[in-house]
Each structure stands twice: as structure tokens, then as C-alpha cells.
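Worked example

This section walks through a single chain of length 228. The input is the sequence exactly as stored; nothing has been trimmed or padded.
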Amino acid sequence: MTLKFAEIYFNSPGARVFDVTINGSRVLTSFDIVAQAGAAWRAVDRSFPVTVTNGQIAIQAVAQVDNPQINAIEITPGAAAKTVIRVNAGGGGFTDASGAVWAADNGSAAGQAFSTGAEIQNTSAPALYRSLRWNTGPLTYQFSVPNGTYKVTLKYAELYHTSAGSRVFDVSVNGTRVLQNFDIVAQAGGANRAVDRTFSVNVTNGQITILSTSTVDYPQINGVEITN
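Given that input, the structure is written out below as C-alpha cells.
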């Protein structure tokens, strides 16, 4: 927030002095426009970071000498907080070759972990795809995030079956189906090959819930990446 001042009535310091608070916090004490600007008819600005928690910005100027004044107000949003969630499903934490940090498996309360030492093709981060989480019933991952629009990337590689049609499942994100009859081998072009799917998700309830349900065999996932 920037408050803009110029003294266009008085000519000498001390003729107008006032305090300013923003959202209850004092940001200017005994502010004298002429003294700060160096003369009358000269512009002087003061900028402050303001954190808003109640949906309001309240600016209050209180007189010490004469009456408070202001010439203009500029309010611009700060940089939005960046959300990055990267989870290595079924595996431990690691840092990939690009420097991205992947957390150990979290966000799911059901299912089993599985891993392999096989070579994984079609990726620059093979370690991510060597582990997975699967479940005999629905497989759910859930993460708390601020409301907003996110890019959700689901990462897969088939580590057990070798032929198309052996594992088929649907995936929904926040109740919207994003993958139907998804067959990893068919989509990746073979077993032990990485294949990613990315979706835009608008969050209004503070949660991203990824639900995988079986059509043939059991649903699985190798990694989850969420960014805004």
C-alpha cells in the first residue's frame, strides 16, 4: 500500500502534523508533509506491506496539529503464496535431477506400497516411478491447500502387469472424473514406462481429493504433484 501526500495549503513545517494507522497498526507517527517532502507543493509517498485477514483495509489519520490530509491511495496485491506439493507414492523422499524435492509417501490412509528396481523409461526422474501405492478398494489421496486454481499432475508407471487391459481404473479429482478406464500400459506404450496426466483444478473448500476406483484389478499411483 502506498499513501501519497503533498502539502498544498501550508508553507512551513509543523503546520500540519498527524499519525496514520492501517488496520490498527501505526505506520506514520507525527507525520509532517512539508518536513518530509522538503517544501510545500512537493510530492512525498510512503509505502507499507499490509496483511489482510478480515477482507478490509482501513486507513485512519489522526491529527496532532491542524487537520490530517491525504492526496491519493494506491493498493496493489503482493505475490501470491506458492503452493508446491510433490509426493512419491509408495516410496521415500528424494530430490530429482532437476532439483525438485519429493516428499515421502503421505496423504493416503489406505492401500499398500510396492517398489521395484527395474529401469523406467520415458522419464528423467526414474526413481519416482519405481514405487507406487495400490489398494484393493478405492485409493484416495487428500491434501489441504488454500482456495484457488491448481495444476494437478498424476504420475504412473505399470510395475507389475506387462499387457494392456490388466489394470484399468477411473480417477476423480474433487468429485470430477478426469480419467475413465485408464490403462497405464496402453497409455504409456508398455510396462515400466512413465506416463503423466495433468489437470486444472479449482479449489473452493480447501482440499484436493484424488480418488481412484477399480474397473479391472486394483488402482495405483506412483506420484502426485500439485502446484499453483
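What to look for: Residues 175 and 209 are 8 Å apart (CA to CA).
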